[in-house]
Amino acid sequence: MIRSCIFCQNLADGDGGAIYTWNGSKPAITNCTFHGNRARDAGGMICSRRDSNPRSTNCIMWGNEATHGDAICLALYTWGRTFTTAATVSHSDVEGGYARAYVETGCTLNWSEGNIDADPLFVDPASGGCRLRAESPCVDAGNPAYIPALRETDIEGEPRVMGGRVDMGADEFTSTLIPILYVSATEFQFALYVDGPNPEAQILSICNIGSGTLEWNIIEDCPWLRAEPARGESITGSSV
């Protein structure tokens, strides 16, 4: 599992400027950013050989350079027998799209849904900055079914999903102009016996990770559950 990482301005004389998979059955690469990497084959994300099958989801591959496949290179390997390779890319921003990938005959690139080919609009790409601007096409463009792990954060330690849908890349865009609701935990489990005592109370934290003042109100839709307090305000950085 490779998650929420930035691979920036790396150089390889041979294969894989950032990542080179070799006989790696199914490495999962999620919410990573590959920018400014160079190599002979696959300057950026994948140079895959010998029965590898990496999977990329919610990633950005932009500004990478290689003789074969700026971002993606799938190649055969022959050593007594022929080893094939494959890769799956979904909900990712890949410069040049499928057409710029280098795929040798006998290899398979599964170009799944949600992929785009658009400038990610990094805040400061010249110096290697990979934070997203507000107008970036990668904001709220990741897999809509993606559910972050408990306390999962982006590269800056901020909550992974903040706009209702995960962003592409290692950075989750944060608006500094409006209040943004962050809730933890996202799931509670209660256990009790019939006619037994009430289960212990559990804590729901409500935090404003944006700016200004966030007004919140909890509406309960079951007779046995009560939240206290049911409404309130949260200023920037404070939690209730």
Q: Structural class, judged by helices and strands?
A: mainly beta
**What ranges have pLDDT less than 50 throughout 5 or more consecutive residues?**
none
What is the end-to-end distance?
33 Å
Radius of gyration: 22 Å
Multimer state: single chain
Discrete helix count: 0
The H-and-E topology, N to C, reads as EEEEEEEEEEEEEEEEEEEEE
Number of strands: 21
What does this structure look like?
- With 240 residues, this protein is an all-beta fold.
- It is built from no helices and 21 strands.
- A 5-stranded parallel beta sheet has the order 1-4-8-14-17, with no helix packed on it.
- A hairpin with a 3-residue loop joins β12 and β13.
- The radius of gyration is 22 Å and the shape is elongated.
- The model has no long low-confidence stretch (mean pLDDT 84).
Main traits of this protein?
240 residues; mainly beta; four-stranded parallel β-sheet; 21 strands
Structure at a glance:
This protein is mostly beta strands.
Secondary structure layout:
Elements (H helix, E strand, L loop, with lengths): L1 E2 L2 E3 L11 E3 L5 E3 L2 E3 L2 E4 L4 E4 L5 E3 L2 E3 L2 E4 L3 E3 L2 E2 L3 E2 L2 E5 L2 E2 L7 E2 L4 E4 L69 E4 L20 E4 L4 E5 L13 E5 L5
Parallel strand pairs: 1-4, 2-5, 3-7, 4-8, 5-9, 6-10, 7-11, 8-14, 9-15, 11-16, 14-17
Antiparallel strand pairs: 12-13, 18-19, 20-21
